[in-house]
Amino acid sequence: MNLEVGSQKIQANRLKQSTVLAVDDNEDNLMLLTEVLKVFDCALLTATHGQMALMLAHSCHPDLILLDVMLPDINGEEVVHYLKGNPQTEDIPVIAVTALAREEDRDRLLRAGCIDYVSKPYMLEDLESRIRCHLSNVPTACK
């Protein structure tokens, strides 16, 4: 009987596992994001193009998207525009993770629909803090 209760708890924890979509055309950046996301014990999806990101967002409906802005096919700002314009994906939070570091870039991405912004190169602790802030199943520490 205890085993059954234990397995039910394990299943409940798995049901609460978040899914994060990491989008970056640089394989090294995706590997780094993969390592960062291990801290959160979440399912990870990756995409190297904007169109691939849109397809995964529609089919898998991740809990959070970490989005590079400079992508080879369509840029991240356009990806956000498509996501926010579609009722199936408009509620997915998007964090821009980009080398565009000017204040006007940040403001433009936030206006486009990103909920947060992290400038590359970033400190791992800063990225972890932003992810923790926007994932619903981890303790919130938004500042």
From TrEMBL:
Domain Response regulatory: 19-135
Methyltransferase is among the record's keywords: no
Matches recorded under Pfam families: Response_reg (PF00072)
Record PTM 4-aspartylphosphate, positions in chain: 68
Any one biological process term the GO annotation gives: phosphorelay signal transduction system
Top-level lineage group: Bacteria
Protein name (database record): Response regulator receiver protein
